[in-house]
Amino acid sequence: MSLTQQETLAGWGNYPFSSSYTIHPTEVQEWQQAVQQGNFIARGLGRSYADQATNKNHVVGIATKMNRFLHWDAQQGILQCEAGVSLEEIITVFAPQGWLPMICPGTKFVTIGGAIANDIHGKAHHVDGSFMNCVLSFTILLANGEIVTASRTENADLFIANFGGLGLLGVILTATLQLRKIETTYFRQQSVKVKNLDEMLAALEKYAHYNYSVAWIDSLAKGDQLGRGVLTVGNAASLAELPPALQQKPLQLHKKSVLQVPFFLPGFVLNNFTVRILNKVIGFVQNSPKEFIHYEKFFFPLDAIHHWNRGYGKRGFIQYQFVIPEAGGEQTLRTIMEMIAKSGCTPFLNVFKKMGQGQGILSFPFAGYTLAIDFPVTKGLKAFTEKLDKVVLDAGGRLYLGKDAMLEPAMFQQMYPQFTEWLAIKQKYDPENKFTSDIGRRLQLS
Ligand SMILES: Cc1cc2nc3c(=O)[nH]c(=O)nc-3n(C[C@H](O)[C@H](O)[C@H](O)COP(=O)(O)OP(=O)(O)OC[C@H]3O[C@@H](n4cnc5c(N)ncnc54)[C@H](O)[C@@H]3O)c2cc1C
């Protein structure tokens, strides 16, 4: 295999960039050849935020051409497909037949391989758990060239370690997934405006019986208004409860978006003033939703504008997402929000929710509060996130590795003390360290 195509790659945050050799396999043999040579990582649609799917001066295999559906059991809703299939492709084919993916993150442009490697979660984590819960089994190409099946009963250690394993244990080739039966592609939702953090936490409890729940928090609110925002909750809408106009086409698909940010906006576009206006607009839109809303707007509002990440300009941005236990969580949230307000690092989007029980080894979620904050990359940002890391760690929390751009190994190891268990599995299946990536090197996982 000759490697001539060198590409500058980044994650969704356009930070950091790194130059890797890319290949686009269409057959298993191409993956096998590439893996044989070592220093290799698979990549899906590049929706991780930072260096999860980049591999400086080494090889990145882009999985999106391995996107065939292999078998469909229409009775049980069980789909076998290649790992380069995206949630969007699954939705497009199966939603009109009355099935949706069980777990949907904030964008439908993620592949099944990427969803497994980051063990992604959605707005119903407290009910459905993370992506592992919809995967019955997968096949994976190992460092020794073998392809094996992993499930809860076969190579169970490999199965579990891949959820949150950042692609560092092999190339996931195919997966067998449980989809969810739906009567309609609509959701019945309710929005609750809250004035501050106390009200937000009270509202989360009050509306905990809803399956889906997520809050937007005004990133610039301070003092008595700290934590101000809108909590949106909802459930899948049944056919009977849809208004007559929507009952005509209850399994309506999303329309392809035509809007996009065509180029990187200049860095000065996002400043305190524009972020304040944008937050007002978001607050207004969140607080005035229709009762019945299509999955596209319910799950994937950000997909409405392609390349919205360019809005942060060429400097890029990070998404800092942490989870902390509920006990003592309120004070920690307050401390972090106050630190942000004083920091001079203008946060843009703050997304808040309560998570349910965790699972896996390096999988991110556990029961508690999670907050995701977008920060444009600025000179003082790393020093600031290091301060936040300490607060998160002291509260018993950790960062989402699928989004992290800045963690240092010592902090990572304290946040994920179970990393030694994961490394033992890595050693068993990849003793020569053939699977490497930029985050793998940064966190000393490869
Ligand atoms: C707008 C937006 C909203 C988001 N919302 C959420 C959310 O609500 N919840 C959540 O959990 N995440 C969320 N994410 C993050 C996203 O779901 C994850 O980063 C997901 O893993 C991206 O999938 P991908 O196909 O783009 O993978 P990539 O980003 O390309 O890769 C991610 C990881 O998967 C590995 N990988 C990819 N394919 C394979 C394969 N075939 N075999 C082995 N390893 C592989 C890569 O090596 C890498 O480590 C969001 C991202 C964006 C941009």
TrEMBL record:
Q: Which InterPro entries match?
A: ALO_C, FAD-bd_PCMH, FAD-bd_PCMH-like_sf, FAD-bd_PCMH_sub2, FAD_lactone_oxidase-like, Oxid_FAD_bind_N
The residue ranges crossing the membrane are 158-179
User: What SUPFAM superfamilies does the record tag this protein with?
Assistant: FAD-binding/transporter-associated domain-like
Sorted keywords for this record are: Membrane, Oxidoreductase, Transmembrane, Transmembrane helix
* Residues annotated as domain FAD-binding PCMH-type: 14-182
Q: Which Gene3D superfamilies match?
A: 3.30.465.10
Q: Name one Pfam family in it.
A: ALO
Q: Which domain of life is it from?
A: Bacteria
The record's listing under PANTHER family reads:
D-ARABINONO-1,4-LACTONE OXIDASE, L-GULONOLACTONE OXIDASE
List the protein's name.
FAD-binding protein
